[in-house]
Inverse folding.
């Protein structure tokens, strides 16, 4: 029975998609066992109203992925190496214009300067019913993830915001969930328990780099930064249906919302915990892969050291809406983030106005124009961005462009 997840080959920075899936299919037939994927992603965005300010942003990303099939290259059956690095421009739609809890783009690194970083560097070994991965990798590609979610550009839809915001208070630098652009050192084990039922567990360094030097890879191991663990149980009775349930925990020392010591320093506690449930299924089918899929995810987090204690998202994705374009995907989605009472009280104590919820909505259409070019227009509407009562709702228009090619070495 198929386990429904993104493969390592599909883990290029843009979390889909048509180019990378095609590359994987081609790579499976590689005679050398060595391939290079190159992908340029450009995004033009216009924050037409609301948020921090109106304006236009252009963001770009260059990603290079080297993949080695160890069976073909070295005779190690079931093994594969992956090295992936990227360049990201400093322009940020979210930080400069929108001001929402999470970013509106998968390539928005929200960094102050252009960055070059290792994105993933790991070895994956399949032992049959057991699969083990070790190295630097993006937890987002395999946990709290369903296939239909990968269409959308908003990071609210990448997994769940309650997990994505774990440990990411401003004082903590890059302590947090271990996804783009700050990917951690980790070990992941997946066990197939029976046809259609599997469990996967990951233990990762909670600081994917040193918070004092975030512009470069520098895995910082210390009791203060701690570790992140996630365990997920998956039920996949068919290739188009998945149910998932997961729990996670951080051991890092984190500041408590609104609590201070006698010397004025913010009180800290060790640990943050949470969980999630979700799923996706085919709602309506036509010939081939055409049809309508639906998905949802509910995420929860302990409240003392976060700005988002609950998030819920859902959506619909139609593959092959037009007869002449059976592989195009169209989708609509929503996400609602809820802030904990402790964060609300802390903001009010500082004289900062506050709203309890932030909601976002997205509509998008993805079209593969040629083997090397994919276009994806996108529109998003964000209500109460950043929980700020004085911020007007955002209306954001975007065009996402991918240019890529696979080289079989």
């Amino acid at each position: 029975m198929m386990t429904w997840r993104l493969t390592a080959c599909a883990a290029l920075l843009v979390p889909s998609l048509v180019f990378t899936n095609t590359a994987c299919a081609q790579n499976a037939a590689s005679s050398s066992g060595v391939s290079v994927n190159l992908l340029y992603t450009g995004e033009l965005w216009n924050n037409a109203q609301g948020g921090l300010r109106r304006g236009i942003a252009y963001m770009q990303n260059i990603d290079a992925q080297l993949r080695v099939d160890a069976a073909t290259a070295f005779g190690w059956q079931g093994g594969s190496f992956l090295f992936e690095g990227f360049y990201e421009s400093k322009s940020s739609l979210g930080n400069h214009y929108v001001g929402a809890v999470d970013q509106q783009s998968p390539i928005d690194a929200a960094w102050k300067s252009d960055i070059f970083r290792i994105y993933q560097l790991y070895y994956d070994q399949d032992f049959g019913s057991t699969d083990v991965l070790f190295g630097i990798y993006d937890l987002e590609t395999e946990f709290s993830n369903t296939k239909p979610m990968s269409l959308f550009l908003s990071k609210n839809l990448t997994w769940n915001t309650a997990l994505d915001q774990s440990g990411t208070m401003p004082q903590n630098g890059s302590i947090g969930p271990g996804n783009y652009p700050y990917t951690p050192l980790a070990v992941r084990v997946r066990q197939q328990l029976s046809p259609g039922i599997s469990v996967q567990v990951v233990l990762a360094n909670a600081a994917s780099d040193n918070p004092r030097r975030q512009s470069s890879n520098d895995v910082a191991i210390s009791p203060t930064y701690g570790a992140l663990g996630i365990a997920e149980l998956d039920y996949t009775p068919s290739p188009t249906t998945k149910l998932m349930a997961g729990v996670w925990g951080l051991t890092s020392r984190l500041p408590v919302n609104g609590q201070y010591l006698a010397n004025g320093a913010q009180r800290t506690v060790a640990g943050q915990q949470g969980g999630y449930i979700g799923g996706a299924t085919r709602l309506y089918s036509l010939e081939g892969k055409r049809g309508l899929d639906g998905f949802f995810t509910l995420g929860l987090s302990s409240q003392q050291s976060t700005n988002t204690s609950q998030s819920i998202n859902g959506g619909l994705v139609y593959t092959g809406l037009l007869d002449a374009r059976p592989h195009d995907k169209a989708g609509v989605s929503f996400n609602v983030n809820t802030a904990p009472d402790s964060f609300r009280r802390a903001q009010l104590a500082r004289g900062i106005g506050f709203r309890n919820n932030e909601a976002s909505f997205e509509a998008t259409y993805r079209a593969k124009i040629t083997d090397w070019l994919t276009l994806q227009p996108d529109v998003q509407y964000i209500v109460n961005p950043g929980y700020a009562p004085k911020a007007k709702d955002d209306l954001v228009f975007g065009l996402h462009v991918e240019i890529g090619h696979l080289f079989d070495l």
In short: The chain has a mean pLDDT of 85. The longest helix spans residues 18-28.
